[in-house]
Amino acid sequence: MIEQTLKLYDRYFENCLFPEDNRIDEGGINLIAAIYLSWPIKIMQAAISFGFSALFLWLFLDFNYENLLFFSIQLTPFYGSLFAFFTNLCLSVIFFPLGIFFSYYYWKIAFKLILYWLGRSDDQMGEELYAASLSSHIFTIIPLFGGVLQSLAFFFLLLKGVKVRLNLSPFSSFLVVLFPYLLFIILFVITLVLLAMLMIAALG
Torsions phi, psi of 62, nearest 5? Predict the structure, then answer.
């Protein structure tokens, strides 16, 4: 079991360099395996964030750690924001797999849509590229800037994988990878406009 997991991690880290080589039929990593391998890294990232926050409080704010047990009682702005931070940290770990699933299935729909416009087929390529790009979570363990680096790495790995697998130009690959983000923004704006129209109609 441990040896198998280590082999999976070897493949997982290889995807950081060669996302286009991740093919499920050839021993590559599928979505479930990528989530399984990324979750411990997410837990490590949360632990590092907690440790740095605790160190900051201890060094600069003369924080009384006994108060950590009484957040629900001491709802001052400081303690309230600190409680929200730690709660968000825990929830982000607990619901990490669910968030990845929702993100993937939305991305898969958008990816299939643009592939249809390009006259290409998906097969397992969407899952393979997305699973390979999840290896970008290794960057989240870097304090302060890990989240930004992970997002950039995720986008770059998708870009590299799409460019090679679809044999597209760099600009076309960029548009393909950018499309799900643009579609989300468009749908979000349309939803806001519809909600505003409903509220105006209800008030009128």
Answer: 50, 55
Distance (Å, rounded) from C-alpha 47 to C-alpha 176? 35
In whole angstroms, what is the distance from residue 107 CA to residue 8 CA?
24
**Residue range 39-78, pLDDT digits in tens:** 999 999 988 888 877 777 666 655 555 555 444 444 455 5
- By three-state DSSP, how is residue 28 classified? coil
Structure tokens at 151: 């997002």
> Rounded mean pLDDT of 159-166?
92
Strand segments, DSSP code E, in the chain are none
Domain count, the chain: 1
Nearest to 15 by CA among 161, 174, 159: 161
Where in the sequence is the domain holding 90, given as residue range(s)?
A: 2-203
Name, in order, each residue with C-beta under 8 angstroms of 12's C-beta and a sequence gap of 6 or more.
29, 34, 37, 135
Q: Inform me whether the pLDDT recorded for 103 exceeds 90.
A: yes
pTM over the 0.85 mark:
no
**Cα torsion 96, 99, 101, 104: sign:** negative
Contact 134, 33 (CB under 8 A): no
Mean pLDDT is lowest, of 4-8, 53-57, 191-195, for: 53-57
* CA pair distance 72, 87, nearest whole angstrom: 12
Dig out the tokens for 69 from the structure: 């047990």
